[in-house]
Each structure stands twice: as structure tokens, then as C-alpha cells.
């Protein structure tokens, strides 16, 4: 089963993420519903268990899924497309069945990154009959999913998703690139976590890195601190930051 589903130990916490108000509210509500499922069931209501995250890459979709698993103290399983997708007719659908069968036997968070890989719009005339069978299998498996399995799907291209697949998710949240204020707060937390400043005030650095995704901000901060540690005891943080900013500009221009 390891070739179909990868278990990852979740480390991210919700309070470490910089989410806009609406995504933060819907994710928090989902976690509360799962934590207080018995209360809801005593009133004849099941907690919601299907969340679709969309938006540009690098802005926290995987981190949100991981944080949900962490907050609920559940195993975090990620579908491995290299194991699921096959060139042989009918085999992808069968492997997808097996992956869902595995998840149904335990309380867990099941994460589909890049969901549009196997949930493409079936009305697209360019798609093959095989992908349409895979989408039909996926929809059937989602419908059969028990409430104790929390399904999180992520896509950078929600417009490519099959409309029926899109509707299967009770909750949908768009994760946008960070605003200046969000980038500043995120860099403040990163600096504290990494045990030192980043050469410039977080707000100044946020301005210099305008347009960067959360993952790009994190990688930049890690790169600066890594270089600073390796250059001890004579490291010059401002010079390191300036060099990294110039490199970033050169890459963007190239």
C-alpha cells in the first residue's frame, strides 16, 4: 500500500499559518466540527469531512491539510500519483479503489494534492475514456467515504476540475498569495523560529519580496539563515540578503 499512499508525520500547526480571515474561519470550523462530532451526531447531524483548497502554488494548501491532521491528532496520508496512475487500461481506477479502501479502515486525513490530475472535467473532448472512468471511480469513492475520513483536495487550477468532483466538497477555500501585512507577520514568525533577525525589518523585507508566495518567503528566510550560520563568526546578514535579492531579480529577469 505504500506505493499508493504515503504517511507523513504532521508538524504544522494552524497557529503557525498566515491565513486570510475566510479560509481561517472555514478551516477552524471544520476542525471544531470534527472535534465535537459526537455532539453534532446527538442532534442527528454529521460533521463535514470534505474540504477543497484552491489557489496559486506555494500559498499553504499542503500546510493547511497537514495542520488539520496535526490539530486533530490524526494520521496524515498523501495519495502518491506515481503509484496510482498507470498507463494500463483500467488499472488506475483499480488502484484508486485500493487507496480509498485503505483509508476507510481508519480515522485519518486523506490528502489529494493537484486533484485536477485525476479529476479533470469529463466533458472535455480532448480527454480519453480512461480518465473519464477514473473520474467516475473517484466520485463513487468520495460518495462512499465514511465521516471519520477527512478528505482534503488541493488544486492550482480549479477551473480544470470536473464540476461533479467540485460539488462533492462541502467546504471550499481559496488560498491567495500573501498581502504585505500577511508577509510581514509571516516573516516575523520565521525570524523568531529561526532564532535571529533576517538582516532587515520584516516589513522592509516583505516590500523587497513583494509578490512572493508563502513558500518562497520561507525558502528565502531559510537560505539567508543557512548562509549566515555557515559564515560565522563573520557573517553579514544585510550583505547576504542583498546578494539573495539580486539573485532573485536576475532569475526573474532571465
Please provide a brief summary of the model:
With 254 residues, the protein is α/β, with parallel strands linked by helices. It has helices spanning 21-35, 37-42, 61-72, 81-84, 91-104, 129-144, 163-168, 180-193, 202-208, 214-230, 237-253; strands spanning 5-8, 50-54, 76-79, 108-112, 149-155, 171-174. The chain has two domains: 5-174, 3-Layer(aba) Sandwich (Rossmann fold), CATH 3.40.50.300; 180-253.
Structure description:
InterPro entries: 26S_Proteasome_ATPase, AAA+_ATPase, ATPase_AAA_core, ATPase_AAA_CS, P-loop_NTPase. This protein has 254 residues and is of the alpha/beta class. The chain folds into 2 domains: 5-174, Rossmann fold (3-Layer(aba) Sandwich), CATH 3.40.50.300; 180-253. The protein contains 11 helices and 6 strands. The chain has a 6-stranded mixed sheet with strand order 1-3-4-5-2-6, with helices on both faces. Strand 4 (108-112), helix 6 and strand 5 (149-155) form a beta-alpha-beta unit. The mean pLDDT is 92.
Amino acid at each position: 500500500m505504500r506505493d499508493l499512499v504515503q504517511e507523513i508525520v504532521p508538524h504544522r500547526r494552524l497557529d503557525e499559518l498566515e491565513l486570510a480571515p475566510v479560509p481561517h474561519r472555514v478551516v477552524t470550523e471544520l476542525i471544531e466540527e470534527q472535534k465535537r462530532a459526537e455532539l453534532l451526531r446527538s442532534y442527528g447531524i454529521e460533521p463535514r469531512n470534505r474540504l477543497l483548497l484552491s489557489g496559486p502554488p506555494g500559498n499553504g494548501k499542503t500546510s493547511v491539510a497537514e495542520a488539520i491532521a496535526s490539530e486533530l491528532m490524526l494520521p496524515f496520508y498523501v495519495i502518491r500519483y506515481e503509484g496510482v496512475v498507470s498507463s494500463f487500461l483500467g488499472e488506475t481506477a483499480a488502484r484508486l479503489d485500493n487507496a480509498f479502501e485503505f483509508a476507510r479502515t481508519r480515522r485519518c486525513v486523506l490528502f489529494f494534492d493537484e486533484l485536477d490530475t485525476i479529476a479533470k472535467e469529463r466533458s472535455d473532448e480532448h480527454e480519453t475514456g480512461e480518465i473519464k472512468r477514473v473520474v467516475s471511480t473517484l466520485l463513487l469513492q468520495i460518495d462512499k467515504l465514511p465521516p471519520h475520513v477527512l478528505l482534503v483536495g488541493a488544486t492550482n487550477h480549479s477551473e480544470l476540475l470536473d464540476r461533479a468532483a467540485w460539488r462533492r466538497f462541502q467546504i471550499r477555500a481559496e488560498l491567495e498569495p500573501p498581502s504585505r501585512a500577511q508577509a510581514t507577520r509571516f516573516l516575523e514568525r520565521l525570524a523568531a523560529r529561526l532564532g535571529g533577525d533576517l538582516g532587515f525589518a520584516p516589513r522592509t523585507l516583505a516590500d523587497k519580496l513583494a509578490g512572493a508566495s508563502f513558500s518562497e518567503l520561507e525558502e528565502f528566510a531559510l537560505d539567508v539563515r543557512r548562509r549566515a550560520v555557515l559564515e560565522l563568526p563573520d557573517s553579514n546578514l544585510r550583505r547576504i540578503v542583498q546578494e539573495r535579492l539580486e539573485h532573485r531579480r536576475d532569475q526573474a529577469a532571465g
